[in-house]
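ugh ok fine here u go
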Amino acid sequence: MGVRTWAAPIAMVCLLALAGCASGPTDLGPTLTAPTAADELAFRLDVTPSSPQPPDAGFRMPELSVYGDGLVVRSAPDIASTVTRAWPVTTQQRLSPAGIDRLLNAARDAGLAAPTDFGTPNVMDAPATIFTVPGRVTTVVLVDDGAASLDSSQRAPYERLQTFTDRLADLDAWLGDDLTAAEPYSYTQVAVSARAADSRAMQSVKPWPLDDLAYAGVPHGSGRCVIVAGDQLDAIEDVATDAAASTRWLSADARFHLTFRPLLPDEAGCNAIDAT
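structure:
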C-alpha cells in the first residue's frame, strides 16, 4: 500500500518539474493561416539599414517576401559585380502549400504570432529586423550575442528568433523540395526614386531617357517617385542595368540621384513604398 500511496504524488512532482523546466514558450498565439491570393502577403523579412539611414532607405527591396500563391521574392547580393549596381538583383521561387505551412508554423514557434518580449540588446545604431506574418508585424534588433545584455526572461525568446532567422538565411536548404530553384524575378513595373544631386559631384553621369525628373511622378519623401512600365521600362532597363548606384542622371540640365526598385505583388504604386 505504501508504494501505491506515494506513487501518484511523486509522479505529480515529476510532471510539475518538467513543466516548470520546459524551454519552449507557453503561449504561441493563434495558428498562422496563409492567404491564398497572389497579391496577399503571407510572410516578409526586412532589415533596415543601421543609423544614420541613407535618404533612400525606404526604397530598398525587402530581404524576403512570400505570397499566398507561393511566390517567393528575395533580394540577392550582386556577387558578379565589384561595385554596387543601381539596378537591384532580385530572384523568384515557388513555395508549395506545405512549405508555406512549415514557414508559418516555424514563425509561430519563434514567437511571431503573439505579443512576445524579445527585449532590445544594448547596441547603438544597430539595424532593425522586421517580420510580417498574417495579422502581426514585429520589429526586433537582432545582433550576434545580443541575448547577453537582455533580461533572463527575454533571452530564450530572443535566441529562438535568431535561430529562425538563421534558417531563413538558408531557405533553400531548410525547405528543400518544397521550394523551387531561384530564377530572376519577373516584374512588370519599377518604381524610381529621384532626388536632386549636387551638380559639382564627380560621379559618372548618364542621360535620363524619359520625362523631366523634376516634375515626373509624385512627391515622395525628399524627392519624387515615378512608376515605369511597358516601353518606358524597357528604355530605362537598357541604360540602368549596368549603371553603378553612385551614377548621377541628367534630366533637363539638372542632376539626380536615382534608386530603382521593382514593385512587388502587394504594392500598388509609390504610396505603398516607405517614403523615409
